[in-house]
Amino acid sequence: QVQLVESGGGSVQAGESLRLSCVASGDAFRTGCMGWFRQAPGKEREGVAGMGAGGTTTYTDSVKGRFTISRDNAKNALYLQMNSLKPEDTAMYYCARERGACTISWFLARPGLWNYWGQGTQVTVSS
Questions:
Q1: Buried b (16+ CB within 10 A) or exposed e, 78-111
Q2: Is 88 helix (H, G, I), strand (E, B) or coil?
Q3: 84-121 pLDDT per residue, tens
């Protein structure tokens, strides 16, 4: 059974940075897709950044140039470096995993297709 555990969230001022981590157990990132999603109160869950098994990355437009997704296969870890944070980035951030065949750009736009989710880590950005 795949388990995902996120960490690294917190409260920061606008313009500051945070690095989220997601460690997977029961899984190795050899196939499928990995992604970061977020959900603000009263809003739908949205894909923020994703990575395919081959290393292809994709980002939602609002974070391009500010967020970077990366992974460490040896540690079964996925990361999200978030720079120049804005108040509108405030949300619960979730790590997700899809082990089957997937095209990351298509999957990131469809949270309902992902099979495994972490418990989330809160990011709060104040102005």
A1: bbbebeebeeebbbbbbbbbbbeebebeebbeeb
A2: helix
A3: 999 999 999 999 999 988 999 999 999 999 999 999 99
